Structures are given as C-alpha cells and as structure tokens.
Amino acid sequence: MSRADINSGVNSVSEWLHKVMPQCQFTEIRTSGSWSLLSFKSKEDYQILGTSFMTSGLKEFNSAKLLSIEPAEVVDPPRAYLQVSLDTTSTISVLMEVITPFAASFPFLKACDTQGQGQRSTPVEPPDKQQQSSAMASNIQSSMAIILMFEGRNQKFALRAKQAAMNSWTINIADPYPELIDSVSFHGIGMDLPLVGLKTGCPQTGVQLVVFVQKHANFKAMVRFYEAVIGEKPHQSEEKLITEANVALFMLSARSELAVIYCPQFSTKTHISLALHIQVKATPKVKGQIEVSDGFWCCTDPEGNKVVLFSVLK
Predict the structure, then answer these.
(1) How far apart are alpha carbons 231 and 282 in whole angstroms?
(2) Could you read off the pLDDT of 165-175 as tens digits, one per residue?
(3) Please, which residues have CB within 8 angstroms of residue 267's CB and are 6 or more apart in sequence?
(4) DSSP label at 23?
(5) What is the pLDDT of residue 130?
(6) What is the pTM assigned to this prediction?
(7) What are phi and psi of 69, to 5 degrees?
C-alpha cells in the first residue's frame, strides 16, 4: 500500500466512521500520518466502536486497512525533563538511589531502553570499574545535570541522597561555582548519565535542569537558543568574563527552572544518550529542526546537545 493510500484512508477516518456508525458521537482531535486520535461522547459509543472492530466491521475502508484501536493515555508532563537512553551497560538504579530521597515520583527524568523495550522499569547492572575509572581520569563531565533543591526542613533527606552518592559514585565535585549557587555538590557516574547536584537549605523544594556550556564564546548563542525554544527571556542572566561563571535561569514553573551555565572549572561534553525534552506552546521555528511525528520535533542546540520539542493537546 502506498503512503498516499494510507494518508487518504487516515484523513477520511472521521467521515468514514460517521457513515458506518451514525449512532455514535465523537470528535476527531488530531490526525497525522497513519493514525487518528478520536474522543467519543459516551461509554456506549466506545463499546460500539470496539464491537464493530472485533467483528471485522471496521477492518477496511477506501484502499487502507484499520490495523488496531488503542487507548490514549492522559498525561500532564512537566515543561521540561531529561531523557536517558540506556543500553545493557548503563545504569539507572544507582541514579535513582540519589533521587528517591528527594521524591519517590520524579517526572523530570525518564529512561528509555535502546534495545527496544521502551521505558525501563527494572534496574540494570551498573557500569564496570574500567568505565568508572575512565570517567574519573578524563575529568570531562556530562553537559547536562539535574539539581535537587532540598527545603530547609528536609535536610535529613538531603543527607540520605548525599550519602548514597558518596558511597557508590565515582565523580564528586563540591561547590564548582560557589559565587553562583550556595551549597551545591555535583555527583556522577559517567558521561552517559547526567550529573546530579544537591542543594540544601533552600526556601522551598525545587528542581533545576542544567545545560553546561562548553565554550564561553557560545554562551550568548546558547541563551538565545533556549530563549527562542521556551518562548520567554531568562528571569536571571549574568554574562561575565571567561574566568568566571556565567548563568541564565529560565522559569519553567513555580518549582522548576532551566539553567544554562558556563563554568570555567568544568570540562563538559555532549553525549548521545542524553536528550532534553522541552514543551512548546506553538510550532517551533528552530534551525535544523526535524518533525519526527505530529507534535514532536528533534533538533540540537548550538553545542550539539540533543533537544526534543513537544506540544500537548489542550
């Protein structure tokens, strides 16, 4: 079947269903490529749809074939989150040992299985000693990080997170830029996972997603890129000398921020396993963006970090 045939069939799903099931009331919310998202008015309408499909009444139309009917999951994703693509030698379990004291449910980090298993729900083995030693010897850190900001009254949970990191993590960096953020220590395992920063004594609980700028000369371009993507100017921006830390903070919600930081004490590098997902309000206009599906676009920032832009249905 040609793609033109498929598109023709999919684009006529709504009209076709109205003809074969005139007793049902539904709205076509979105259609793209080879699928359509429909919302039916009542439970009875859903039952009629399912029965008709199971009895082969809805199998073929035009020159296309209806292959499956699947439920749509209603989610409320954060404005931004990090996605880690794992293989058989990566680990997410050690990372979660540090994050769990902060929050048992943590929507700002998602793990995907590169072996085609989807989102990983069970821990995999941590990296071997050779990988860990290599990460330490290179002195090059991941270009992305998550800072967990612990409220003052939750210090016992901050201590648990720090102890978990100090026990088994190989990269521990205390206060890399004390002039910017007080009481932050970064911990990591290797290049294929984000660094995790722990900040204590905060006025309220919160999360910062961090993109480290590799070269001072790129700081302005990086800030402009994320300003265009988020659709807002940073609520705090400090561009200083190459020998000093530079920072731009974008407010994502009442308790989450995106930080673009150049830190001369850090040597960072992009990694293919990390992707920053950012929710956009309208179709983005970013140089080099590729639409991978309806409402999803892939691009890279000026330093090559993978960025996925997505929109949600209202």
Answers:
(1) 9
(2) 887 676 666 65
(3) 139, 140, 141, 214
(4) T
(5) 43
(6) 0.73
(7) -125, 125
